[in-house]
Design brief:
heterodimer, A: elongated, B: alpha/beta, FAD/NAD(P)-binding domain, seven-stranded mixed sheet, globular, binds flavin-adenine dinucleotide
């Protein structure tokens, strides 16, 4: 019986967080005590304040103005995308970014692609199919469901093969298969 | 193995080849490989436990084990952080090994026996003669016998046709290009990819043999998992996609002279005197990636085959003589990715089927060559990789608030409902990868990070900006790709505008003529040879690099043997 995953679009952030937290070795991430995902969230919040304050001579917002959700999460989708673009264009004070982004333009700029790529890979790969094991280590996870992104794309899943051979444009180069003619 | 004649650092695209060639000449070779070994009984749980120290017996290779590890799931296999094919230690609870760049980057390499050929798509074209002759310190003609030997050993065959290749050929013909039935490309044209993939199983269309049965037999089954790590074949050495783990490594073991030690990082190349101008290599310092234990090994000759980032990094971390070209000249084919979406009616009239099904057949089965500019190749992958490569990386902004350029062509990173509309059409998608004849520039390359080190020393810092010529050439190739997709009937075409920091084909960081001589021996350190993509004088004219690395490795083995062991 094939079980289909319940809609898990809402949990892709778990994938993004889990992968981010494994991205940097602790020597660079200043100890395991500050996970990279937390620092990324701080980075987004700082850039959000930057966007909100843009063009204003006086701006009283701080990262702590938004106690429950961060500044970033309070923005509308279009604005959130603008925030990520600010990072990409490095229109943020590099020296006051949280570690490990402090004075690290490459890493800061890469975050837009990283966040997008992880979201897409989480959604369209087998990850949602891991169901209740999805947050376990890669060697422990088991496929429980047909992944959500494969339903959307109508991808049949891994295969032993396909009988869709249509022929050969050129034969074997070593059996007079038509090279160098 | 104690007292090897030669130590090879890295069991990837180049290292595996030179080890087999030397082993056949009776030389005792020890390969030191940083990553795990998949498919060897001595490491039944390669990502969980350290396992044995080394293996030198082809009877240790085990196809059921290999199959269980290569499970074709793209997150499990290809995730750059946690996948089996990542640049990092075997233990996936640990973070990958870091590299830095001052720009947007994706560096796509893999540690492990087989190196980056574990996930490569096995496209094995020769360089364009135009990119070799009068530029390299050796001629294209001199390379031909070595190309032939590698092509016969891997072996290389022209790719079979499935729907995506047929559609590409259809578009290319309508765009005015001609079939170029050759391995020596001197003029523009399209052709099937010369791929290091075993020919299609003759029984593939025989419905009395199940697909599962076929997958245990010899020959490609068109399953489409080249990039996820092909697991199909009767034995490890007969697996269909010829990553060096299944091609040259078993052959190397069969010589009885080659031992491979995975999970071991070389942290220093040792030489005799620190002060004289001409130095000689004496051995290496290594570190176990599970235990952290260090050891020194000696050998008559050392071959560096760590790939285009780690080879210069190791040179620099070993305090070898100063050379202004070490690490410099990095090329990456300044790649671009263009995707066409087709509609059902057109597909039925061209292919007789409503879908292209990009997940069927060789991952990259068709190409168009244009010596002087570079090449185009089709690429069809599973949905996660497709989404992230086609729509998830761009040097431009999100499409949601960017105006479309024209009705059928737009460039940018795509999100929201536009993304899901495109992905709903996944089975009607054809992607084209562009490889630019990328110019080597001394400004681009690898150096040591001034502040940050990991357990193996200062980490590499990469920088790459395409030259004016490379930018111009990529533009021309993009036009060609768009034209072909358009002629094939695509209703929407999306150029991703990949940022310059996409590192898939890294070459030329230890260039022949600058760091190594024509025999690939370092000018400044005798008995140190280099055998990976880094020795390429240039980016081969925009052609996939591995076959040339393997031809050179075959040649270097001969030269090395003549000079030091004959
Ligand atoms: C998705 C993808 C698809 C590709 N498809 C193709 C293709 O179709 N055709 C093609 O020609 N190319 C392709 N490539 C590129 C191809 O992978 C490389 O050209 C090829 O693997 C390079 O060989 P190499 O020997 O230079 O390096 P690698 O194959 O990367 O081998 C280097 C090895 O050295 C080891 N190593 C490094 N440093 C050390 C150290 N200090 N100590 C011990 N071991 C070390 C590494 O772990 C690794 O195993 C592709 C690449 C990617 C990412």
């Amino acid at each position: 019986m094939i079980l289909y995953a319940s809609p898990m679009g809402g949990v892709i952030y778990e994938y993004v967080i889990a992968v981010l937290d494994q991205t940097l070795p602790s020597s660079i991430n200043h100890g395991d005590t500050i996970p990279f995902s937390k620092q990324t969230a701080k980075l987004l919040d700082m850039a959000a304040i930057q966007l909100i304050c843009r063009g204003k001579t006086e701006c009283l917002y701080h990262t702590w103005t938004f106690p429950r959700k961060g500044a970033f999460a309070n923005l509308k989708r279009g604005e959130r995308q603008k925030v990520v673009d600010l990072l990409e264009r490095l229109e943020v004070p590099l020296e006051s970014l949280p570690e490990p982004f402090t004075n690290n333009p490459g890493l800061t700029q890469s975050m837009k692609n990283t966040l997008t790529q992880l979201t897409l890979l989480g959604y369209y790969s087998e990850w949602t199919g891991y169901g209740s094991t999805r947050l376990k280590g890669p060697d422990v996870r088991r496929i429980e469901f047909f992944p959500m992104g494969w339903l959307q794309t109508n991808y049949p899943g891994p295969a032993f093969g396909y009988r869709n051979l249509r022929g050969f444009l050129l034969g074997d180069p070593y059996k007079g298969g038509g090279h160098d003619v | 193995m104690s007292n090897p004649d030669v130590i090879v650092i890295g069991a990837g695209g180049g290292g595996a080849v030179i080890a087999k060639e030397l082993g056949e000449k009776g030389i005792k070779v020890l390969i030191i490989e940083a990553g795990p070994w998949y498919g060897n009984k001595k490491w039944p749980n390669p990502n969980l436990y350290s396992g044995a120290k080394e293996s030198s017996d082809s009877n240790d290779l085990d196809i059921p084990l290999y199959r269980s590890l290569m499970n074709k799931y793209e997150d499990n296999m290809n995730n750059l952080v946690t996948g089996r094919f990542r640049w990092g230690p075997a233990n996936r609870d640990r973070a990958p090994w870091v590299r830095f760049t001052p720009q947007k980057q994706i560096i796509w390499q893999s540690a492990g026996v087989g190196g980056s050929t574990q996930h490569y798509t096995a496209n094995s074209p020769r360089a364009y003669p135009l990119a070799i002759d009068q530029l390299w310190p050796l001629s294209y003609r001199e390379l031909i016998p070595y190309y032939e030997k590698v092509e016969a050993t891997l072996p290389v065959h022209f790719a079979p046709t499935t729907a995506k290749e047929e559609l590409f050929y259809f578009g290319a013909k309508r765009a005015g290009w001609r079939l170029n039935p050759t391995l020596n490309v001197t003029s523009p044209g399209f052709r099937p990819q010369p791929n290091a993939i075993l020919p299609v199983n003759k029984n593939l269309t025989n419905v009395n043999v199940s697909l599962e049965q076929l997958s245990w037999m010899e020959g490609c089954t068109l399953c489409g998992h080249c990039i996820n790590g092909c697991p199909h074949g009767p034995t490890v050495d007969r697996v269909a996609k010829r990553s060096t783990t299944v091609s040259y490594i078993p052959l190397a073991l069969n010589t009885g002279n080659v031992t491979i030690r995975p999970n071991t990082f070389t942290i220093k190349i040792l030489t005799d005197s620190l002060h004289s101008q001409e130095r000689h290599v004496t051995g290496v310092r290594i570190k176990d990636t599970w235990t952290g234990e260090e050891e020194e090994l000696t050998a008559k000759v050392v071959v560096l085959a760590g790939g285009s980032i780690e080879s210069p990094r190791l040179w620099l971390n070993s305090n070898l003589p100063q050379n202004s070209w070490v690490g410099k000249g990095l090329t990456n084919h300044y790649m671009e990715w263009v995707t066409g979406i087709f509609n059902e009616r057109d597909l039925i009239s061209i292919l007789g089927e409503p879908d292209i099904n990009p997940f069927v057949g060789h991952t990259c089965g068709a190409r168009l060559d244009f010596p002087g500019l570079g090449s185009l190749q089709t690429a069809g992958m599973s949905p996660g990789l497709t989404a992230s490569l086609s729509y998830g990386i761009s040097q431009f902004r999100w499409s949601i608030y960017q105006k479309e350029k024209s009705k059928w062509e737009f460039h940018n990173q795509i999100v929201g409902s536009k993304l899901s509309d495109l992905m709903i059409n996944y089975r009607k998608t054809l992607s084209v990868l562009i490889l630019t004849d990328d110019e080597a520039d001394q400004k681009n390359g690898v150096k040591l990070h001034p502040m940050i080190s990991d357990e193996h020393g200062p980490v590499p810092l990469l920088s790459y900006t395409p030259t004016k010529n490379s930018i111009k050439k990529r533009k021309e190739l993009m036009k060609m790709a768009i034209h072909i997709l358009h002629k094939a009937g695509a209703k929407q075409i999306i150029s991703s505008y990949w940022p310059a920091g996409i590192m898939i084909h890294l070459e030329s960081t230890m260039r022949m003529g600058f760091v190594v001589d024509a025999n690939c021996e370092a000018y400044q350190v005798k008995k140190l040879f280099i055998s990976d993509n880094s020795v390429h004088y240039n980016s081969l004219g925009g052609v996939n690099p591995t076959l040339t690395t393997q031809a050179l490795a075959t040649r270097t083995a001969e030269k090395l043997f003549e000079k030091y062991f004959n």
